[in-house]
Amino acid sequence: MEYFFRTLKKLGIISIVSFGIIAIGLLYYIEFQLPDINALNSVQLQVPLQVFTHDGKLIAEYGEKRRIPLPYDQIPKQLIDAVLATEDQRYFQHPGIDIPGLARAGIKLILTGRKEQGGSTITMQVARSFYLTRHKTFGRKLREILLALKIDHQLSKQKILELYLNKIFLGARAYGVEAAAEVYYGKPLNQLTIDQYAMLAGLPKAPSALNPIANPEAAKKRRDHVLGRMYELSIINEADYKKALAAPLNAHYHELQTEVKAPYVGELVRRQLQEMYGDQVYTDGFKVYTSIDSNMQNTANQSVRNNLIAYDQRHGYRGPEKNLGTPSLNQMQQWEQKLAEIPVINGLEPAAVIDIMPKSITVLRASGALVTIPWQGLSWARKQINEDYLGRMPSTAEEIVRLGDVIRIALTPQGLRLAQIPAAEAGIVALNPTNGAILALVGGFDYNSSKFNRITNAARQPGSSFKPFVYSAALEKGYTLATIINDAPVVIENPNDNSLWRPQNDTHKFYGPTRIRDALTLSRNLVSIRLLDLIGISYAIKYAQNFGFTKHQLPAGLSLALGTATVTPLQMAAAYATFANTGFKVIPFAIEQIRNSQDQVIYEAKPLASCPTCPAVEDAAQQKTHAPRAISSQNAFLITSALHDALQHGALAQARTLQRKDLAGKTGTTQNQVDAWFAGYSTELVAISWLGYDQQQRSLHEYGAQAALPMWIEFMQAALKDRPERPMAEPEGIVSVKIDPMTGKRAGINDPVAKFEYFMAPYIPDEDQTMTAQDNTTAPEGDTSGTGVY
User: Fold this and answer.
1) Mean pLDDT of 170-181
2) Alpha-carbon distance 119 to 87, whole Å?
3) Is 757 helix (H, G, I), strand (E, B) or coil?
4) Which of 73, 98, 353, 478 gives 20 to 30 Å between its CA and that of 563?
C-alpha cells in the first residue's frame, strides 16, 4: 500500500507538471503563434464605394456586399438582447468560450458520431469569421477556442459584439445588421420593431435558407423561436411577446434607396476611381463627394424626360409593344405577372388595355389596379405612318389601341396619359464656368435601358453651335462685329471627284451684305463659310484648339464653319465656358473629394480657376492655381454680346420667356437634322442640351430651336430661379461706337438710324469708313487659302 501511494503521488506530481507544461505551451501558442488580435481594433470591413452629391446626398453605391457599419452605441439594445438570447445567452459571463456548450457538443459527437453542434460562442464566431475557415475539423476548432480566449482577453465585450453584428452575413447580399434592416425592411435599424429585430436575430443560423425572401414560412418559425427565447429570459413581457408573434413578416427585398438620380454620374465616377485605386474601391469604404448640385441634377433629369417625351409624341404614336389577346377575368392574374416582368422605364409603366370606350380606355397595371385614361391623355396619338408622315388626328380611342395591347402610361399633373418609350435620345450637362465643376449631367433617357453616356462619349457634329468659335477666330484677326460680308451663293469644287458643293442658308434665301453680328445672331451659313475662307482654315483649326478641341476632331475644309467637327456635349460645355468666364480654359471635373473609411481626405480636387482680375499668368507658380487664358476678355465679351442678341432679338423668341438679360446662346442643327443642340450660358452657368438618335444618319425632322432649346429653357428656368442677373462686365479695351447698321460705316452722332456697336480698341473704324471683309486692312495677314468660287 505504501508503494502504491508513493507511486500515485509521483504520478500526481508528474500530471501536475505535465499539465503545467501543457498550459505554459498553450499560453505561449496563444501569445506568440496565434494572429495579432490588436488588429481587430482597427479592422477594415468590406464596405462598398459610395458616391454623393456636393451637398451630401447619395447618388450610387458599388460593391458586392451591402454593409453599413455601426458603432456599438448605435446598435439598438433590443436587437442585442434578441441576438444574445438566441446565439449566446451567457455572453457577458464566459471568457470567450462556453464550457457547458462545448461539453454538450462533445457529448453529441460521442453519441451520434456527427459534428452537429459546435458549441460556438459569439466570440468564437468572430474568431472564425476573421481568421479561420468554416471547415469543420478538430484542428480548426482548437484554434477557434484559443483565438476566442485571446480575443476575449484583449477586447471589450462591446467591441466584440460590434465586430460580430457588422461582419455577419444575413442573406440577400446584406452584411451586418444595419444593411439587413435596409434590405428587408427599407428602414434604418433603429426604426424596426421587436418582431423585426427577432427576425434579424434568427438569420445567423442559416441566412440563405431562413431569410424571409427565400423562405417566408421558415423565417417566421425562426423568428417566433427567437421571440420565445426572449420571453423565457424575461427580456420581453407577455403582452409584447403575443403582439410580436401576431405581427406579419412584412419583409421583402428593398433596392438601395438613392437620394438623387444621377446614374451616369455615378458610373463616370466609378470608372475614374477604379483607374485611380483599382478593385479596392469596392471594398475599402471610399466615399466620393462630387461637384453635382442635387437640385440642378433633379431639374436636368426632369427637363430631359419631359422634352424627349414631348419630342417623341410630336412625331406620332408607333403602336403597342405587344398584344396579349382578348381579355377575360380568368386571365387577369396571368396578365399581371406578364406586366410585372416588363421593366418600368423612367416612370413609363407598362399596362394592358382591357376596355375601350369612344373617348377613354381602361387599363390593367402590374399591381392589379384598373385605371382609366381619359381622352385628354389619348388625343395626341396620331399614328406614325413613317418618319416623314403622320396619320390624321384620331377621333375615337378605337383608332389608337386594341384590346390586349401592352402600352405605356405616364402620370402627369393633368392625370394619366398614354405614352411610349422614346426612340430618340437626349442629354444635358451643366458646368460652373469658373472652374469646370460639373453641376448636373444626364447622359440619356434611362440608364437601365442604355448605359451609354452620350454627354461624355457620343462624338457628334455640333452644327451651327460651333460657329461662335469661327467668329471668335475672326475677331482675333481684326475683323469686327460691324464687318460686312456678302451673304450670296457659294459654289465649292471638290478636287477629288470634281463634284460641286452648294451650301445654303436654312431658309434657302440669300441676304446680301450682312454685318458679322447679324450673321452670328441669325446663323447665316454662307457668311460663316466666307469668313472661314478669309481667315484661313488652318488658322481656324489651330485657334479652335484654344477651347479644348483637338486637331483630329476638326475637318480641314470650309464645312468646318457649319459645324462638321465631331465633339462631345461635355467638350462643348467646356468650350462655351471660355466665353462665359471671359476667356479662360477650364477642365471639366466631377470628383471634388475622396474620403477613406476613417473619414480621412485622401484626394481633393484643385481645379484651375478663371481669374479675370488677375494679371497675365507668367510664372510656374501662378500657372498651378490659375486657369490659362485661351482668348482675350475683349473677344469673349464681343462673342457673348452677339450670342446675347441671338436670344433677345433673334429667331429664338421662346428663350425670352426666361425674362433674363444675362443669357447668351446658340442653336445647332446638323445636315438633314440629324442632331439638335443648344449651347447657352450666363456668367455663372453653362448648359448644353442635345437631342438625336443613336443611329447617326436618322433625321429628327426638327431644328435645334424646336428640339433642344426647350430642354435648355426648362433647365435654366429652374437652375437660375431666384438668382440675380449678372451680365458680363465690359472689359477694358472695349469701345462703343455708333455705326450705320446697313453699311457698317461709322455714323454721325445725330444719325437717326445709327446703332451702337462694340469694338476692340485697335479696330475702331475711322469716320465714314465701311468695315468690309475686302477693305479690313487692320486685320493681320493670314492663311487665305480659299477653295471656293464666289
Assistant:
1) 92
2) 10
3) strand
4) 478
**Cα dihedral 450/456/459/462 (nearest 10):** 110
**CA-closest candidate to residue 504, choices 635, 392, 669, 661:** 669
In contact, 573 and 688? CB cutoff 8 Å: yes
| Sheet-wide strand order for 675-681 | 438-442, 425-431, 686-692, 675-681, 664-669
- β pairing state of 415-419 and 360-365: unpaired
Name the phi and psi angles at 405, rounded to 5. -65, 135
> Is position 87 annotated as part of the catalytic site?
yes
Q: Are 526 and 487 in contact (CB under 8 A)?
A: yes
Average pLDDT over residues 406-423: 95
Dist CA 139 CA 132 (whole Å): 11
Say which residues have a Cβ less than 8 Å from residue 187's Cβ, sequence separation at least 6: 181
Q: Which amino acid is at 695?
A: Q
What is the predicted pLDDT for the residue at 50?
A: 95
b vs e for 591-609, b when ≥16 Cβ sit within 10 Å of the residue's Cβ? bbbbbeeeeeeebebebbb
Question: Which of 291, 294, 303, 464 is an active site residue?
Answer: 464
Cell numbers for 689, please give them: 442640351
Number of H helices, E strands in the chain: 23, 25
pLDDT digits (tens, 9 = 90+) for 646-684: 988 766 778 888 989 999 999 999 999 999 999 999 999
Question: What secondary structure letter does DSSP report for 688?
Answer: E
Q: Are strands 664-669 and 512-515 parallel, antiparallel or unpaired?
A: unpaired
**E strand spans, 304-393:** 322-323, 349-357, 360-365, 370-374, 384-386, 389-390
* Strands 58-62, 49-52: pairing kind: antiparallel
Percent over 90 (pLDDT), the chain: 69
Across the strands, what pairs with 50?
Answer: 61, 287
The contacts of residue 487 (CB under 8 Å, 6+ apart) are 505, 510, 511, 512, 513, 514, 519, 524, 526, 527
Those residues with Cβ within 8 angstroms of residue 463's Cβ, 6 or more apart along the chain or in another chain: 562, 563, 667, 668, 669, 670, 671, 675, 677, 704
DSSP strand pairing (500-501 vs 591-595): unpaired
Torsion, Cα 766 769 771 774, to 10 degrees, reads -120
Q: Kindly report, residue by residue over 523-548, the tens digit of the pLDDT.
A: 999 999 999 999 999 999 999 999 99
> Can you list the pairs that 731-734 forms with residues at least 24 positions away whose Cβ atoms lie under 8 Å?
731/582, 731/612, 731/633, 731/634, 731/637, 733/632, 733/633, 733/634, 733/760, 733/761, 734/634, 734/637, 734/638, 734/758, 734/759, 734/760, 734/761
Closest by alpha carbon to 564, among 518, 614, 501, 511?
501
318-329 pLDDT, tens digit per residue, is 999 999 999 988
Q: Rounded to the nearest 10 degrees, how much is the dihedral formed by the CA atoms of 576, 577, 582, 585?
A: -110
Q: Decide if 474 contacts 535 (C-beta within 8 A).
A: yes
Cell matching residue 47: 464596405
**What's the longest Cα–Cα distance across the chain?**
144
Which residue, chain included where needed, has cell 446584406?
Answer: 174
Distance CA 707, CA 306 (A): 11
Q: Are 780 and 518 in contact (CB under 8 A)?
A: no
Q: Which segment, 42-56, 147-161, 638-652, 711-725, is predicted with the most confidence on average?
A: 711-725
Structure-model confidence comparison of residues 622 and 42, the more confident one: 42
Q: What is the pTM of this model?
A: 0.85
Torsion angles phi and psi, residue 167, rounded to 5 = -90, -35
E strand or H helix that includes residue 564:
none
Residue 699 annotated as catalytic: no
Give the residue among 207, 297, 195, 274 at the shortest CA–CA distance from 236: 195
State whether residue 686 is helix, strand or coil: strand
Which ranges of 442-587 does DSSP label H, i.e. alpha helix? 467-476, 516-521, 525-535, 537-544, 569-580
Distance separating alpha carbons of residues 158 and 163, to the nearest angstrom: 9
Cell of 615: 494679371
